[in-house]
Amino acid sequence: MSTSSSSGPLAPRQPPSDKELVLKVIPMPADTNGNGDIFGGWVMAQVDLAGSVIPARHVNGRMATVAVNQFVFKQPVRVGDILSFYAVVTRIGRTSITVQVEVFAERFGAQGQFVKVTEASLTYVAIDDQGKPRPIRNNPTGQDT
């Protein structure tokens, strides 16, 4: 995943091999802000969807986003970029799961070259039919939330 120090932090890189590809999407002109870049709120919504993929496998039922622990926009996202969302679980508690999401863009006209555009950490909580937190079945860690 890392590049050599001589290529700099914004140089094209390869996507992470230690995370799972959970979503690919191409932003369209309707998703732009007043500057012509993709609206940050649209990116946040996509990150929330991507981040929920792996927890859904553990929760076996309803869940909700309970926290956005960190969200960093590293580079603008442009119309026509192919965005790849990679995720990994960083913590499983009694009722919650925390996920790290990294977003890489293949710029329009430069496919195969990846630039990290966003990274985030989100926490999801398993909920019952009344919207109250509930234990995650088969919690491998037994940690409390």
Provide the low-confidence segments as ranges: 1-7
Percent of residues in helices comes to 10-25%
Q: What average pLDDT do the residues reach?
A: 89
Task: Give the SSE string.
Answer: EHEEEE
Widest sheet: strand ordering: 1-3-4-5-2
Tags for this model:
disordered N terminus, 145 residues, mainly beta, five-stranded antiparallel β-sheet, 5 strands
Molecular structure report:
- With 145 residues, the protein is mainly beta.
- The protein has one helix and five strands.
- It has a five-stranded antiparallel sheet, covered by helices on one side.
- The model is unreliable at 1-7 (pLDDT under 50).
- Strand 3 and strand 4 (96-106) form a beta hairpin.
Structure at a glance:
By secondary structure, this protein is mostly beta strands. Helices cover 14% and strands 36% of the residues.
List the helices and strands and how they pair.
Layout: E1 20-25, H1 40-59, E2 63-73, E3 82-92, E4 96-106, E5 114-126
Antiparallel strand pairs: 1-3, 2-5, 3-4, 4-5
